[in-house]
Write a sequence for this structure.
């Protein structure tokens, strides 16, 4: 299992100044889905974030977005990657704020 720091790298690959190459979209989408799955599992182990309303909202978004297929259109696919990366970032930050996970370097 990759360390949580790997999540930050994948977020940066999508939300950074330079867009990822279209040929990498599928691989990045799979990694982001994996990160969402992992964060959802961590939150569930903590009882859906200890009842934190924001964690619960983010978990619902994660379950929905994770199940969506990557669009064939490259602009739409990049948009979906950005939404997934932003959600991974938001969920990770909230899990840190609620002391469910430790600070990620």
């Amino acid at each position: 299992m990759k360390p949580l720091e790997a999540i930050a790298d994948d977020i940066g690959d999508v939300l950074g100044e330079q867009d990822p190459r279209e040929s990498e979209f599928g691989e990045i989408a799979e990694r982001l889905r994996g990160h969402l799955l992992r964060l959802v599992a961590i939150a569930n182990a903590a009882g859906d974030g200890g009842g934190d309303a924001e964690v619960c909202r983010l978990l619902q978004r994660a379950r929905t977005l994770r199940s969506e297929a990557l669009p064939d259109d490259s602009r739409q696919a990049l948009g979906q990657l950005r939404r997934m990366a932003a959600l991974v970032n938001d969920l990770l930050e909230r899990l840190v704020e609620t002391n469910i996970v430790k600070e990620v370097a």
Remarks:
- The two ends are 17 Å apart (CA to CA).
- The chain is about 70% helix and 0% strand.
- The chain has a mean pLDDT of 89.
